[in-house]
């Protein structure tokens, strides 16, 4: 959706140059997750978050993430300077950056560009706190910067699994499912619960069965042609 004339003129009257506002290449600045919500549009702020220096602030309107995970991949190890990373998945409409896209910097690891190109990593331009991964449809927030009002709140963001556990630098024997690679698309390893492992094996067998069926259909139809 293109920004309205009012949105554009507001941006210009608050000191933005037309080259940073006009044109389709600037439209993303006015869309979720960077669209600034006002009291009038009914955004219900349940959580407040701030980067280390305080330049980047956001609010969340959803009580619980759609899912939360720990990622042990080597890319996260490098980009986060940490043994693993904790991410909570939200819809782009669930977040309100109080300064919109301002004070934010982007990094797309494929092209190694700092242009806003999806999927990318988003951080504070000043203190470099990692803020989120912005995907094409979802955002993966790093919840460390949320100001919890209670232990119960933080528990709502508890991860459901570990992924890329094969690349780990530390064992986390917490009994959660541990995927060797992408969650749901690789093997369960480490101290994953026996039931989880069995369930995953059944799923793989079923998937293989379905693929075999598809292959059979394909080979039949190709024989016809
Ligand atoms: Zn900062
Ligand atoms: Zn990762």
Automatic annotation (TrEMBL):
Give a yes or no for keyword Lyase in this entry.
Answer: yes
Q: Which residues form a coiled coil?
A: none
The CENP-V/GFA domain covers 47-180
Residue ranges of region Disordered? 1-24, 181-225
What keyword terms does UniProt attach to this protein?
A: Lyase, Metal-binding, Zinc
Which residue intervals are annotated with compositional bias (Basic and acidic residues) in the record?
A: 195-204
Q: Which GO terms describe its molecular function?
A: carbon-sulfur lyase activity; metal ion binding
UniProt entry tagged with the keyword Metal-binding: yes
Record InterPro entries: CENP-V/GFA (IPR006913), Mss4-like_sf (IPR011057)
Q: Where is the composition biased (Polar residues)?
A: 1-13
Q: Name one Pfam family in it.
A: GFA
Q: Which family does it belong to?
A: Belongs to the Gfa family.
* Stated name of the protein: CENP-V/GFA domain-containing protein
What species was this sequence derived from? Hyaloscypha bicolor E
Taxonomically, what lineage is the organism? Eukaryota, Fungi, Dikarya, Ascomycota, Pezizomycotina
